[in-house]
Specification:
alpha+beta; GMP Synthetase, Chain A, domain 3; 3 helices; 29% helix; Metal-sulfur cluster assembly factor; MIP18-like; Fe-S_Maturation_MIP18; FSCA_dom_sf
């Protein structure tokens, strides 16, 4: 079965690395929501580990760039939120084990 566009978007976001931590934004739990409408416009709601993240602009741009690589995608909107605030509990359980948290 072919991967849905939403699944493809999630997989692209797994390629976006938070270079300070060295892990992808999905594993870190930074992506809260991915929506794809009937016209293949993509909306991503995400956060950073801290509002003071020095790499926020670069990470958001990388996320948008990666999603735009998908041929079917018409438009991309990445929204940054800090509600709810990120906590280490949001990290993928497997990755938490690797990090010892």
């Amino acid at each position: 079965m072919a991967e849905s566009l939403k699944e493809q978007v999630w997989n692209k976001l797994k390629q976006v690395i938070d270079f300070e931590i060295g892990l992808d934004i999905v594993s870190l739990g930074l992506v809260y929501k991915v929506e794809v409408d009937d016209n293949n416009n993509v909306y991503v709601l995400m956060t950073m580990t801290t509002p003071m993240c020095p790499l926020a602009g670069m990470i958001l741009q990388d996320a948008e760039t990666k999603v735009r690589e998908l041929e079917e995608v018409k438009d991309v909107k990445i929204e940054l939120t800090f509600d709810p605030p990120w906590t280490p509990d949001m990290v993928d359980p497997e990755v938490r084990g690797q990090l010892g948290i």
